[in-house]
Amino acid sequence: MRKRLSVLIPGLILIAVGTAVFAQFQSGSYGSTQTNSIEQTVPPQLAQDGNFSVAPFPSFVPELAEGEGRAETQDFCTTCHSTRYITMQPPLPAPTWDAEVNKMIKTFGASIPEATAKEIISYLQEHYTPENRKH
């Protein structure tokens, strides 16, 4: 019994000390200036007279390739997105451009007259397919 108590008491003391130290760490008391205490360091003070501003992000609108249907493509497609969405695409096969324009009309509600949609599709197929990507 005595042997158990001699092991149990130091173990309980160790647990109590460990719990106290852990509680200080949990409460944000980090760092130490003295060997017998744990203190949190003071955060750096920011200057009160600081002046910060953000400039506009430089941006450019990519030009579409010259050709018949360019104006219609630019006018109707840019009501929802920039021309960058056309120029950043990998060269798409002609049927895919047809599907893309129809998706914009049917799924996303782009109000493009049928005759104009045909012009836009023809323009995209003429300039942005793998066979004839010019720009």
From TrEMBL:
What Gene Ontology molecular function terms does this protein carry? electron transfer activity; heme binding
Highest taxon above the source species: Bacteria
Query: Mind telling me which InterPro entries this protein's record contains?
Result: Cyt_c-like_dom_sf
- The protein in question is named Sulfide dehydrogenase
The organism of origin for this protein = Candidatus Acidiferrum panamense
